[in-house]
Amino acid sequence: MTYIRLDKLREYYKPEIPAVLEENYQVDIDSSEDLPPVEEEIKRLFPNTCHLPLLTIQESNGSKRNNMRPLHVGVVLSGGQAPGGHNVIAAIYDALKAYHAASRLYGFLMGPGGLIKHQFIELHKSLIDRYRNSGGFDMIGSDRTKIECVEDFERVIDIAHRLDLSALVIIGGDDSATNGALLAEYCAEKEEKLCVIGCPKTIDGDLKNRFIETSFGFDTCVKVYAELVGNIQRDCYSAKKYWHFIKLMGRSASHLTLECALQTQPTIAIISEEVEAKQQTLDDIVQIIADVVVDRYNRGYPFGVVLIPEGLIEFVPRMRRLINELNEVLRVNEKNLLIVKKSEVVRYIASKLTTESAEVFLSLPNEVAGQLMLERDPHGNVQVSRVQTEELIVSLVRKELKKRKERGNYDGKFSALTHFFGYEGRSSMPSNFDAAYCYALGLTAVALASHHANGYMAAVGNLVAFPGEWKPRGVPFVSMMHMEEREGRRLPVVKKSLVDLEGAPFRYFVEHREQRARAVDFRYPGPIQYFGPSAVCDSTTITLRLEHDLSAEEDSEEALREQH
Ligand code: FBP
């Protein structure tokens, strides 16, 4: 028997592309839909890019383009890894070469930091081919450096002049898109030739809106988590003795947890946005879990699975107040902290907090208090992936169950295990969906670049259809921005999209959760499939299906028979 490595075989996989991008196309103003109104303050800060229209890419009836001048484009990966990033770059390369054989693509190394330091390589076919359909960002690396001041902009413009760049494609999430918007405005003001174009990346799924249906990487990452959660659930249902508490990545929004819950149907899934909307305390969450633990124990099921979103603590109002105060106290006392004894740090910090926050802070297990004090990322975010929320919740549930035992309300055992799934999914080999979506985004970015579209995010819509029917567009960065308080300053930023509590995915989850809390068995989605029936290999998330008014469940007997 011959053996072939899957990762090698994937280098040759050719994702299907949107039909309009296959042939001769043209970029036009899209007047079929209105963009949301731009806030007055944003208009004042972005006078040159605030009136940009929505763009559409459609078939051209004219004769085949004869592109006289090659295009030079720079590309940068920004922020956390997300499956499919290499395919965006591969598509940019392919589209540039199709545009004009002498076109060039430069990759800036290690993210926006490398862009500002002018560290780059020219990307050639041999390198690109090795990375087709692969996970990770290792082709050129990434970081979280901000591009926000005039010196940074001038450094970018300087390298753009030297490499004769017509466009810079920033592949990133909301913070990176904010960088892109600021840079695009600066280029427009200075009447530079450089166009700044974004591609919506983030496993968190929180860079989305009416025009950006999802960010790339979300589909793959959640499928990896769903496989792992499913495996644990199968073990849990087999052994019938453990409670598994699983924290899932997704810094702020709970999209990953919600989708994972829809795919795996765990006993409980906490959704941060709901916690905030209901102003729940940690104790409220603990009571909900403890009630389910007791009820299941009494019915003979001393086991279950709880999903916890990574960003939960920031959505518990009292914890959020504590974190905001901590940000300030840590900043102001940076020097003093260097001389405070390690064992005294928590008490020292508590003495600088308001009484209410100090009480919350001191009630936390020492490790968690320490994790909350870790350095913030360059965008001012608490590094929630390093806060052991799952351990915190388990210890609080344990305490609560002990109290109930003392009161004689419960006499069971509670054996809990904790897990954190984050990096396991973030650099995974992209699913067929993400491979195709990323490829389409890269092609769209070049279509926008060839149209000199400065200040746009590449967008691809109609994602629940086959890729041939996807609709590429250009969405102005500014249309996604609003003013937000960040580290004590009001700043223009691209808006993060949180779970919509009125939206179809959350409503579907709520409809089923009581039954899930009582159910004995679970769902086991299994691993991502790359080859096989299209209904299994090419379908995307339940979130997207529900948001497009499609059914969450497709595996009717009839559909299954068809596949056989
Ligand atoms: P992006 O928003 O940059 O895509 O990154 C998302 C993320 O994966 C979060 O889910 C996670 O909290 C964070 O990155 C961790 O980042 P790092 O590994 O840099 O600490």
TrEMBL record:
Its cofactor is Mg(2+). Pfam families: PFK (PF00365). Gene3D superfamilies: 3.40.50.450, Phosphofructokinase domain, Phosphofructokinase, domain 3. SUPFAM superfamilies: Phosphofructokinase. Keywords: Cytoplasm, Glycolysis, Kinase, Magnesium, Metal-binding, Transferase. The record marks 201 as: Important for catalytic activity. The active site is at 204 (proton acceptor). Substrate binds at residues 202-204, 241-242, 249-251, 310, 423-426. Residues 73-446 form the Phosphofructokinase domain. Diphosphate binds at residue 80. This is Pyrophosphate--fructose 6-phosphate 1-phosphotransferase. It comes from Porphyromonas miyakawae. The lineage of its organism: Bacteria, Pseudomonadati, Bacteroidota, Bacteroidia, Bacteroidales. The gene is pfp.
